[in-house]
């Protein structure tokens, strides 16, 4: 292990920016070392650098990413991006405005627009009505714009290098920096008062610092559809029915992303049945809206299928001095509700506020940093606990694989059909613009009770005793669906 001089103990605040630049470039030393220039790492680098911190950002490949993830940013994510001063990263990437969701249930569908906000026009007293909007786009183009913002920042130095290990102090557990390999041959070291691990869903480094491991029950299989006519344009379209959910949303002028959820061990996707391709061909294709089928078929024939695991990883607090774990490395939820980047950007906003020079003058003061990270764990809940619980609970309903869940799924759809608050508040939660966890609790149990009401009405008077038993079982299932995820949020 290299000898570490204790130079990082003195704060860099107020020193000359170009001296800092030299210190990063030549000596590989900074206030903060960030592992991974993804959505979280790039945005965090800019947020901290704007506060005058000296930042080293390490990324294994600066090529434009080509992935099937992170393509729909919720209105709550656009808001966070705006507050971070990074709203421009959504310009010139052929992004599509997203104004809500449409849920398609067999032959019916219900549009669920994002709620309307009354915003005060600053210099005049009148109120203006405007709609919350999200954006969908090619993930790689957005990440490249975020990276460009980091690359252009005078207080950030970006290195294209793959981090191989974390450097820990020899006399305690404190993290001091990282070791990396550049162009597969050249070994490097980087040192910072704080090391941020945000190396994404398959994080190599999380296991040393958090005790949870990701759970995967299904995969999303993705294709790019060309000139596809989705049921409602400018909406995220969710197709429900006998199978696991299918998502459709436009990501460019001509391109539409389709993501098909395929649970593990699904019989119709077994090798004997032609694998996932067979499942898409024989089961999914006929269940899609007629207007979508031609482009779906064409994409299948082209054969560019790709997949990603859909993970659940509950949040936890980090207790090791000198390090912070963030982004997908820290916390994941099913991507059904497209919440990951929105969580990441809101986390950047919150953590950069908690670690600002006003709150933490010297990042080498690890006790203060750890205290702020504990505060972060609880304060992020107002946004993230909602996104996490909603994603997991909604996935259980939408992928309904038993009769109780099927009742809840139908109840949920019928609930949306009621309109008014039955859609504006749920979609406000999903869009991360409503920050009261109780609203989620309220609507979830309203859906459960509404499902039971439909069940009793349908069964009629004579069946009432049976309905009663079914009602109890459906209600029990609803509790079984949501409570584990609520408890996961209450742990430290
Ligand atoms: C199928 C699917 C669809 C999704 N769709 C959406 C969506 O529509 N909307 C949404 O908001 N979220 C979505 N998500 C979630 C979203 O993609 C993630 O939450 C988000 O990308 C997390 O950002 P991150 O910065 O933590 O990780 P990433 O964006 O994955 O960034 C990690 C970075 O670290 C780099 N890296 C990794 N290891 C090293 C190393 N050793 N050294 C140097 N660099 C390294 C990687 O190259 C990468 O650039 C989806 C997820 C899945 C699985
Ligand atoms: C860079 O950091 C310095 C302090 O080192 C600060 O004064 C300056 O405002 C920062 N630059 C930007 C563009 O934020």
From TrEMBL:
One Gene Ontology molecular-function label: flavin adenine dinucleotide binding
Predominant location category: endoplasmic reticulum
Transmembrane segments: 438-456, 462-487
Domain FAD dependent oxidoreductase: 31-61
E.C. number(s) listed in UniProt: 1.14.14.17
Region of interest: Disordered: 1-22
Catalytic activity: squalene + reduced [NADPH--hemoprotein reductase] + O2 = (S)-2,3-epoxysqualene + oxidized [NADPH--hemoprotein reductase] + H2O + H(+)
Record-annotated Squalene epoxidase domain positions: 193-468
Pathway in which this enzyme or protein is active: Steroid metabolism; ergosterol biosynthesis
Keywords annotated in UniProt: Endoplasmic reticulum, FAD, Flavoprotein, Lipid biosynthesis, Lipid metabolism, Membrane, Microsome, Oxidoreductase, Steroid biosynthesis, Steroid metabolism, Transmembrane, Transmembrane helix
Low complexity compositional bias, start-end: 7-16
Record carries keyword Transmembrane: yes
Membrane topology term: Multi-pass membrane protein
Entry's localization field: Endoplasmic reticulum membrane; Microsome membrane
GO CC aspect terms: endoplasmic reticulum membrane
InterPro entries in alphabetical order: FAD-dep_OxRdtase (IPR006076), FAD/NAD-bd_sf (IPR036188), Squalene_epoxidase (IPR013698), Squalene_monox (IPR040125)
Top-level taxon in the UniProt lineage: Eukaryota
BP-aspect Gene Ontology terms: ergosterol biosynthetic process
Co-factor(s): FAD
Function: Catalyzes the stereospecific oxidation of squalene to (S)-2,3-epoxysqualene, and is considered to be a rate-limiting enzyme in steroid biosynthesis.
Family stated for the protein in its record: Belongs to the squalene monooxygenase family.
Entry protein name: Squalene monooxygenase
Lineage: Eukaryota, Fungi, Dikarya, Ascomycota, Pezizomycotina
